């Protein structure tokens, strides 16, 4: 992944956004969707994904549904009501951050802000 440090602070927001768009998703499905959306630019590893999902679960922002498929167990993650509210907040924070970054790197954009 190029510039992986730039993405690290956004993993929670990425997860919330994806879960907000889908009723429920399981881990591998999330990693594949991120890969597809970013045209392979961002490869979300299990080592980054599951700690973030567990943190969201501990904060009651996501809930887990365990489904048995044949002999396999699959954990589906879905947003709670609090998770939906947090998604709105995180997306607004990210948009503000992106606006400020655009202003810092492109002076012409800064003029449009005022």
UniProtKB/TrEMBL annotation:
Residues covered by the Transcription regulator PadR N-terminal domain: 15-86
Listed GO MF terms: DNA binding
Protein name: DNA-binding transcriptional regulator, PadR family
Organism: Algibacter luteus
Keyword Chloroplast: no
UniProt KW keywords: DNA-binding
